[in-house]
Amino acid sequence: MKDDSHNRLAIFRSDSGVTLSFGQQTYFIESADPFHNIALKALEQDDYIPFYVEIARREGLGAEFRDALISQVRELSEEED
Fold first, then answer.
1. 13-31 burial string, b = 16+ CB within 10 Å, else e?
2. What pTM value is reported for the model?
3. Mean pLDDT over all residues of the chain?
4. 3-state SS, residue 30
5. Fewest C-beta atoms under 10 Å: which of 31, 47, 65, 80?
Protein backbone atom coordinates (compact mmCIF):
# COMPACT_ATOMS: atom_id res chain seq x y z
CA MET A 1 0.00 0.00 0.00
CA LYS A 2 1.37 3.38 -1.03
CA ASP A 3 1.57 6.02 1.71
CA ASP A 4 0.68 9.44 0.23
CA SER A 5 0.32 11.15 3.60
CA HIS A 6 3.40 13.32 2.96
CA ASN A 7 2.40 14.35 -0.58
CA ARG A 8 0.58 17.45 0.56
CA LEU A 9 1.50 21.02 -0.05
CA ALA A 10 2.44 23.01 3.04
CA ILE A 11 3.11 26.74 2.86
CA PHE A 12 4.85 28.79 5.52
CA ARG A 13 5.12 32.57 5.29
CA SER A 14 7.73 34.63 7.14
CA ASP A 15 9.29 38.09 6.90
CA SER A 16 12.12 36.72 4.76
CA GLY A 17 9.95 34.85 2.26
CA VAL A 18 7.70 31.87 1.67
CA THR A 19 8.63 28.22 2.20
CA LEU A 20 6.90 25.47 0.22
CA SER A 21 7.02 21.87 1.31
CA PHE A 22 5.74 19.08 -0.90
CA GLY A 23 6.62 15.44 -0.34
CA GLN A 24 10.28 15.18 0.57
CA GLN A 25 11.18 18.51 -1.07
CA THR A 26 11.32 21.99 0.42
CA TYR A 27 11.57 25.20 -1.61
CA PHE A 28 12.26 28.70 -0.32
CA ILE A 29 11.01 31.78 -2.14
CA GLU A 30 13.00 34.82 -1.03
CA SER A 31 11.24 38.16 -0.81
CA ALA A 32 13.48 39.38 -3.69
CA ASP A 33 12.34 36.48 -5.93
CA PRO A 34 9.98 37.61 -8.73
CA PHE A 35 7.56 34.81 -7.76
CA HIS A 36 7.26 36.19 -4.21
CA ASN A 37 4.59 38.76 -5.16
CA ILE A 38 2.62 36.08 -7.00
CA ALA A 39 2.90 33.85 -3.93
CA LEU A 40 1.53 36.54 -1.63
CA LYS A 41 -1.43 37.27 -3.93
CA ALA A 42 -2.13 33.55 -4.31
CA LEU A 43 -2.16 33.13 -0.52
CA GLU A 44 -4.57 36.06 -0.14
CA GLN A 45 -6.94 34.38 -2.61
CA ASP A 46 -6.49 30.81 -1.29
CA ASP A 47 -5.26 29.86 -4.77
CA TYR A 48 -2.65 27.11 -4.54
CA ILE A 49 -2.23 26.28 -8.23
CA PRO A 50 0.60 28.83 -8.72
CA PHE A 51 2.59 27.00 -6.03
CA TYR A 52 2.29 23.66 -7.83
CA VAL A 53 3.33 25.35 -11.08
CA GLU A 54 6.35 26.94 -9.36
CA ILE A 55 7.37 23.59 -7.85
CA ALA A 56 7.11 21.94 -11.27
CA ARG A 57 9.21 24.73 -12.80
CA ARG A 58 11.90 24.31 -10.15
CA GLU A 59 11.91 20.56 -10.78
CA GLY A 60 12.39 21.15 -14.51
CA LEU A 61 8.88 20.00 -15.38
CA GLY A 62 7.52 23.40 -16.32
CA ALA A 63 6.53 22.78 -19.94
CA GLU A 64 5.33 19.23 -19.32
CA PHE A 65 3.33 20.28 -16.26
CA ARG A 66 1.86 23.29 -18.08
CA ASP A 67 0.72 21.15 -21.00
CA ALA A 68 -0.88 18.58 -18.69
CA LEU A 69 -2.61 21.33 -16.70
CA ILE A 70 -3.98 23.00 -19.86
CA SER A 71 -5.24 19.63 -21.06
CA GLN A 72 -7.05 19.01 -17.78
CA VAL A 73 -8.61 22.49 -17.83
CA ARG A 74 -9.90 21.86 -21.37
CA GLU A 75 -11.38 18.51 -20.32
CA LEU A 76 -13.14 20.11 -17.36
CA SER A 77 -14.44 22.95 -19.54
CA GLU A 78 -15.87 20.46 -22.03
CA GLU A 79 -17.59 18.54 -19.22
CA GLU A 80 -19.29 21.74 -18.02
CA ASP A 81 -20.69 22.52 -21.50
1. eeeebbebebeeeeeebee
2. 0.67
3. 84
4. strand
5. 80
3-12 burial string, b = 16+ CB within 10 Å, else e? eeeeeeeeee
Q: Give the residues across from 22 on adjacent strands.
A: 9, 25
Distance CA 67, CA 19 (A): 26
8 secondary structure, DSSP code = S
- Residue 22 in contact with residue 55, Cβ under 8 Å? yes
Q: Within the chain, which residues score under 70 in pLDDT? A: 1-7, 62, 81
3-class DSSP assignment, residue 22: strand
The pLDDT score that the predictor gives to residue 79 is 77
Compute the distance between CA of residue 5 and CA of residue 66 in angstroms, rounded to an integer.
Answer: 25
